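Weekly modeling sync, notes
Attendees: S.R. (lead), two postdocs, one rotation student

Agenda item 3: backlog of single-chain predictions. S.R. asked that every request posted to the team notebook include the full sequence so nobody has to chase files. The rotation student volunteered to paste the first one in as an example of the format we agreed on. Action items at the bottom.

Example entry:
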Amino acid sequence: MTLETFRHERHCGLHGERRFVSIERVVVRNYRALRGVEVTFGTGTNIIVGNNETGKSTLLEAINLALKCQLGRRPAAYELHPFLFNADTVAEFVAGHRAKKPQPPPEILIELYLKEDKAFADLQGSINSLMMDQPGISLTIRLDENFKEEYREYIADPDALNSVPVEYYEIVWQSFAGHPLQARAIPLKSILIDPSSISNTNAANRYVLEIVKDYLDKAQAVDLALSYRKMRDEFVSDEKIAAINKDLASKTGIVSDKTLSVAMDMTSKASWESSVLPHLDRIPLTLVGKGEQNAVKVKLAMEASEKCDIFLMEEPENHLSHTNLNRLINKIIEKSNGRQIIITTHSSFVLNKLGIDNTLMFNGKNSVRLNDLPKTTEAYFRKLPGYDTLRMILADKTLLVEGPSDELVVQKAYLQTYGRLPIEAGVEVISVNSLAFKRFLDIAKLLKLEVRVIGDNDGKSVAKAASYAPYAAEKTIGIHIGQDDSLPTLEPQLVKANGLEKLNRILGKKFTNEGELTDYMTAHKADTALRLFDSTEAIDIPGYIRDAIA
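Predicted structure, as returned to the notebook:
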């Protein structure tokens, strides 16, 4: 089958529908923050989440590098520098030579294992680090054998050695069959969308205009180039410009023996891309809001990539309000139908909206997927995307409580116990409707997250505890509910623990019995919780809350 035949079949499919291809697995060795990782992906949406500096963006960059042999939209050969290599690997390389225990020159390896497809027959082989017989792409940055002598001279003085001599390195880009690759030979189209990295005006213009170029068909691109050239020609023929040039010509022999004039740049470098500015409602794109800029870049990139198989996308939520982010995510869902998306985010809204079961937890070394979540749980968060699921996923420990007032009391309890707020210790306190507790626990169970539920017994402590039986055996999950059925909610629990006199003093009240005080606290939950939190006097914490924060 020829490449053109494949492209036609892939576009039309067996039944008139487009068939997309995808990446199944990625292996990265010694590329920037990624010293050694192996990540598997699903055919549809893949949402990469993790703390800052774990290498999420680097993973996308590595995939794009292997697919296109490009860095920053330029050929990778022109962008090689020592900082592409993992810092720890380089440090060990230098230390080894200085300790008279020389190590081989560091190498970068990026491998993409592709989903089995007849289109990839030419890419199939077992020349890969996992020795798997599968279609794939390999990119290696390694010492060029032609520079062995120069390399030996470079490492001859270990004390002067401080980095990787990339000047002596080469890029080997090949299939798993061992055949050298060229961009046109890869039957898989992708795009890396990272609007957040475009920080200056010129770069932003270039980024958008490159996408515009992708969006234009060949005839439109030619028409635009010809119109631009015609405009430059008309500039010189303008009467006022002609008059200026006539005046300049009169200076011949004074400033130069040759005739001086002004004209628009006609060299090849002065193409329309260097002079045309993208506009929104006649305002240059770089002068509109950051959120609108980023949304336009993402949407335009997706519109311009109708033939793309894979979208690599970096944090689409940047600078966007809740409503505009919702519109953007809906557009991503609409345009990505049938294609593979690998997207990074720090937004629970994005995570829930795109499907929490598509989540891939990434820590820079390994990854865990959430695709085994119960379908009812996945559907719950997709319908109610406001829940802070990502806060729980990224926290060292999470305390789930039933409402804002409970949250303040638990914050106070933690502050009294440890002298600092929970968040300062990497502990999240999240207010959750009690009906959602089990949804969060489904995630915690799968990822082995440290989670504690702090809830009311509602006068039925035994039945309430029994409802959490499916999670009872999980070592990382704790259920903490008051055992006294006569104290069904937090307020009577606090009254029992602290007494009438102390709470009257803290709340500035003069109730004569605990029943009246309890009724007041229940009717004024928020005000009561705020006063308890702000109180300089220590409060006595109910036992089930103390156990939860221990």
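Discussion: group reviewed the output briefly. DSSP finds 20 helices and 20 strands in the chain.
Action items: rotation student to repeat for the remaining queue; S.R. to check formatting next week.
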